[in-house]
Design brief:
- This protein is α+β, with helices and mostly antiparallel strands and about 120 residues long.
- The protein has one domain (about 10-110).
- The chain has three helices and three strands; from the N terminus they run E-H-H-E-E-H.
- A hairpin with a 3-residue loop joins strand 2 and strand 3 (about 85-90).
- The longest helix has 15 residues, at about 95-110.
- It is globular.
- It starts with 10 loop residues before the first strand and ends in a 13-residue tail after the last helix.
Length: about 120
Amino acid sequence: MAGQVEDEARSFDLAVLAMDVSADAATAHAMFERCVSGRHDEGDPDERVVACHDRSRSRFPDHPPHGEDSPWMSTPPSVGIDPAIMHVSFSFSSDAALRAIEELAARLGCGPGGRGRRRFP
């Protein structure tokens, strides 16, 4: 098939951010870039993000032995004061993890599925 790369691992980053409902895309991008650059705010981690991180890890373990259906490309998923960033495989095995994380985030009131269900590219 044209354009298809065989045997190459593909992944994407999924960030669950502790943000106000009124946050816009620029604010989300700034928070994400700050977090992945290693610049973290001081303080206690946001309870919503920690809960989403912990529940995701319990449902989809991030410690060996990893099954072939593990959604994680690298482990453990990282959690900071206001984000949880997960490196997710781009595969069928990640679909269940994405749905579960989105549902958890919505229930806990944080992105990507937080109040108002905000998604930013």
